[in-house]
Amino acid sequence: MTRTLGCGAILRGTVVFASITSLIAGPALAAPPVDLSKWSPDYVRSIAGTEEFDTAAACGKVTPLDYKGRLTFWYQGVFEGDPDLLRQYYKDFFETFRKTYPNIQLEEQALTYNDLLDKFRTALLGNAAPMAVRLQILGGTEFASKGYLQPLKPEDVGWATEDFWPGAMKAVTWDGVTYGIPTNNETMAFIWNADIFKRAGLDPDKAPATWDDVVKYSKQIHDKLGIAGYGLVARKNAGNTPYRFMPQLWGYGGGVFDEADPSPTYGEVRLNSEASKRALQASYDMYVRDKSVPVSALTNQQADNQPLFLGGQLGMMISHPSDYNVMLDLQKKATGSDKDKAQTVIDNMRYGLIPTGPDGKRAVVFGGSNIHILKPEYVDGGKVDEPAAKALICFWTSPEWSLKMAYAGSNPGNLNGFKTKWMKERLDNIKFLDVTTSMLPYGIPFPALPESPEIMNIIIPDMLQNALTGAMSVDQAAEDAAKNVEDLKGGGGL
Amino acid sequence: MAETSTARARPRKRVDRWRWAGRIFLGLMLLYTAVPMVWMLLTSIKSGFAAMQLPPQWWPAEPTLASYQKLLDPQNSVGADFLHFFWNSLIVSTLTTILGVIVAVPAAYAFSRFRFPGRNFLFFAVLLRNMFPAVIFLVPLFILMRWLGLVNSHGSLVVTYLTFGLPLSIWLLKGFYDNIPIQLEQAARIDGATRFQAFLKIVMPLSVPGIIATAIYSFIGAWNEYIYAYTFLNRNDQLTLPVGIQRFFSENTTDFPGLMAASFMMSVPVVVLFLVLQKYFVRALTEGAVKH
């Protein structure tokens, strides 16, 4: 940590403080398996590799290992662009499950990130959904509120509610009932190119402290080097956009509702607050006033920032934990002089905490995925094999597999995963992992509302695009977005 | 005399100028269409890192066929999937093409030759479907396919593609039949042929270019279709190529060389088919468009 931030003690202090204020704000629960109030890179390291877990034995108590059944299952898969390591773990998971439950006929379907929700919605309309589904964190409340999902809590598959992040459990709770189990949770971090910082006259080992600094640094990089400073993304209907704008919005003290408060009620729309407008103004300043971000930002998603970053044409961006491993894979597969060039980029990569707002507020989207069981009437064939579904869910949310399936790109949903030997191995092998895990306590879940996917994937990007294209002023764009949220909550469509 | 020769030479010069302008225009059009294909091919032989370089490596510094080897290796999980998707696309597209021709040929013939009540209305009703975007029919067709028990089967795609491909096929073929003089059939009938024999032995051979054009059109439509294949098929072993190619996009990154190699290989059958049969395709489009 000190290698990137140069101030370990301060970091640990702020992380612990953030842990206490944000995590303890969850519902009153029995003691979790790890002490969240002590959360720090050192603490995570100290608990890693301290406990052994037997997944087959634990899941055998939920569904007997000789159970005979059939399960259809959809999930956001890992594909060609994902790190090799992660793809191998997914392969291992399904092989191990089939070996452990040889009599369960599993028909799994991997879907891409941007298509899963639309495909799932269409299947539900035709009562042809799978028996179980693993969705992005945003999806749970939407489908629970519409009555598609069966109640499902960690205890149903042999785990305890306290085994999971309180914030993650909020995302699977609708109207007081739990409808799913978190499989993995992650927070993003800030990544920059030290060489670009140096050439632009900035401290190469110091991330911008505040979002105002990001605007300033971005302009400085652009003015001095003629390249993009900050990797703004504003594409519509792509999950990457809210994951990168909401930390800025919350950092400035704004929000869609009061989701950044310790006990949110989601009653009052705050997209048109002065704080929210300041956050939008920062994006406007970078895109329109300073022209210091990629001109293609309006249609960019994170995958479009990567080539810019790799090519030394982008100074800094909010980064997914998997980015470092993606770069390593690209370096490994490069040949000749490209190999050295790739190594130079990797050597210049720096990870740090996401900047704060003007009042020192640091925030990041608490992301991840959840797993759910469908009601029989929406499933192809009209039947759900619950024991088979629970066997798979127990497996995936176990300390072992919730860690392995999140090895390179996320963190285990089951907190016990942090105690496994594989976590210790990760900490030793994955550079910067301590930075991304350090952001976890700053994580704010998206509002646990059925309208959240529409708000985050459509209204927020629309607001950005309206302001950045000049179709509306910053004030008008914020007011328009607030009105759209009010209308949506009032039952109106968009 | 001299004046006459100058006067004769002038138009020739003008023609030459136009010809050159035409050539330049065609050259630009060729560049416009060929550059993306060349870029696709060049990207497919780069490493993942080289493909992401900015400014771009116009010519790969370290060319590699790794993406093609991976895609064509059935032992590799990526290759096994790709080849399977390729095979599925081939089955669906071929079936759609064959069935499309079998239905479109008699339908177009009937519209061309028979006079019956509601003929014009029916003909335009057939074309009506093409006036709406395909996505409008997505959910209703999905529910219909589920009711028919066709979801998760290639049959759902074949039936759907037929409904989309038939209107233009019928329209194209009707135009073609309209241009075949009816007197040829009448002569055959006088010589003792039945209507079916006249159709089979006189009209069919003359309409081969039109049928081939229709077949190419159906094949390309089915080969490239994405949204219905994506919605109707929920099993990995059933997916077609356009859906399979999506797998090169991940949440936070894209495998550009793999994507380009797969896209290039996907375009090969269509390009080969078109190159081999293009004279028929062009003939059918031009002949069907003009009434003699």
Automatic annotation (TrEMBL), chain A:
Residues 1-30 form the signal peptide. Keywords: Signal, Transport. It comes from the Bacteria. Coiled coil: none annotated. Pfam families: SBP_bac_1 (PF01547). The keyword DNA damage does not apply. InterPro entries: SBP (IPR006059). The keyword Signal applies. Belongs to the bacterial solute-binding protein 1 family. PANTHER family: MALTOSE-BINDING PERIPLASMIC PROTEIN, MALTOSE_MALTODEXTRIN-BINDING PERIPLASMIC PROTEIN. This is Sugar ABC transporter substrate-binding protein. It comes from Dongia sedimenti. The lineage of its organism: Bacteria, Pseudomonadati, Pseudomonadota, Alphaproteobacteria, Rhodospirillales.
UniProtKB/TrEMBL annotation, chain B:
CDD domains: TM_PBP2. Pfam families: BPD_transp_1 (PF00528). Keywords: Cell membrane, Membrane, Sugar transport, Transmembrane, Transmembrane helix, Transport. Residues 86-277 form the ABC transmembrane type-1 domain. The chain crosses the membrane at residues 20-42, 85-109, 121-145, 157-177, 198-220, 256-277. PROSITE patterns: ABC_TM1 (PS50928). It is found in: Cell membrane. It is a multi-pass membrane protein. Part of the ABC transporter complex MalEFGK involved in maltose/maltodextrin import. Probably responsible for the translocation of the substrate across the membrane. Belongs to the binding-protein-dependent transport system permease family. MalFG subfamily. This is Maltose/maltodextrin transport system permease protein MalG. It comes from Dongia sedimenti.
